Amino acid sequence: MTAKNNSSRGRQERRKEGSFSKKGTPRSASGNFKGKGKDKNFRPHPEKLKAFKKGPSAPKKGSDSGEIRLNKYIANSGICSRREADTFIATGSAKVNGKIITEMGYKVKPGDEVRFDDALISPEAKRYVLLNKPKNYITTMSDERERKTVMELIHKASKERIYPVGRLDRQTTGLLLFTNDGEMAKKLTHPKHQVKKLYHVTLDKKLAMSDLKKISENFVLDGKMVFVDKVSYIENKPKFEVGIEIHSGRNRIVRRIFEHFGYHVIKLDRVIFAGLTKKNLGRGVWRHLTEQEVNNLKMI
Q1: Which residues neighbour 93 within 8 Å (Cβ) at sequence distance 6 or greater?
Q2: Which of 64, 112, 169, 204 is catalytic?
Q3: 154 & 289 share domain
Q4: In CATH, what number is assigned to the domain containing residue 181?
Q5: Cα–Cα distance between 195 and 110 in angstroms, integer?
Q6: Out of 17, 60, 229, 238, which could bridge 245 as a Cys pair, Cβ 3.0 to 4.6 Å?
Q7: Is 222 an active-site residue?
Q8: Buried b / exposed e across 59-85, counting CB within 10 Å, b at 16+?
Q9: How many CB atoms lie within 10 A of CB 170?
Q10: What are the CA-CA distances from residue 158 to residues 26, 124, 152, 295 (Å)?
Q11: How many domains is the chain built from?
Q12: 266 and 223 in one domain?
């Protein structure tokens, strides 16, 4: 082998090792400059170039938008962590559309009904909002006659969609609870839980003692028995102002009770609902329940 050939091979080997370009700029063995810019002679692999031109890869075929793993669904519902949810799933605590699911990685689809220990759950954060309702607002989500609704008063209270628990008629004022916790709402409105509601009633005339006694006892109204928990005159108020505690959820029941005995209700204000009060809550004002208040409701 000649000296010339040795010299030529040495130069080729140094180029492979990435010592210097022709212009003396240091470069790596891959062909990229260590300084600014790239080697003009560098060409990416054809397959990589094709992928680059296509842009970001599309989602794999079969991936469903809106699906969420069951353990994440349970964790997002505030019950436990994902790791703990896996344990509960394995022991059969979770149901999807009525079927017990024990499969790890199972995905919940939009619209699926998910239950944990037979209680309906949702990954949406639970909200509990208490409103001191004023007059002339109806308890409905919307109104075709364009009357004012209670939803107008609490529209800034939660980014989640919340619903009124029970109803107050247009002229009735006082406490109205809103939530997206379906199980809670069902419990607070079901008669068997006997959720107490206290009303301040103003009548068109003084309530006779004999009628107060009749109201305090069980009586039949429109063919159904009425159970009043408590009724009394309000201390230091005229005899036409009365307090009545009742757990019935029948429509306009308080007004109908007094009408049954010949009285007309001028004002009706709900001052206590399920242990919640109007303390420091002005008319037309709302607030979120405290953690302790929510826990108290769950114990009903």
Answers
A1: 116, 117
A2: 169
A3: yes
A4: 3.30.70.580
A5: 33
A6: 229
A7: no
A8: eeeeeeeeebbbbebbbbbebeeeeeb
A9: 13
A10: 61, 12, 12, 20
A11: 3
A12: yes
Rounded Cα–Cα distance for residues 252 and 199 (Å): 12
CATH number of the domain residue 80 falls in: 3.10.290.10
Count of residues for the chain? 300
Residues 134/283, Cβ–Cβ less than 8 Å: yes
48 falls within a domain: no
How far is the C-alpha of 137 from the C-alpha of 126, rounded, in Å? 25
Local confidence pLDDT in tens for the 300 residues of the chain: 544 455 555 555 555 444 444 444 444 444 443 444 445 555 555 554 444 444 444 444 444 457 999 998 988 887 788 888 999 999 999 999 999 999 999 999 988 999 998 888 888 888 999 999 999 999 998 888 999 999 999 999 998 889 999 999 999 999 999 998 888 998 999 888 899 999 999 999 999 999 999 999 989 999 999 999 999 999 999 999 999 999 988 889 999 999 999 999 999 999 999 999 999 999 999 999 999 999 999 998
Give the tokens for residue 58: 């599309």
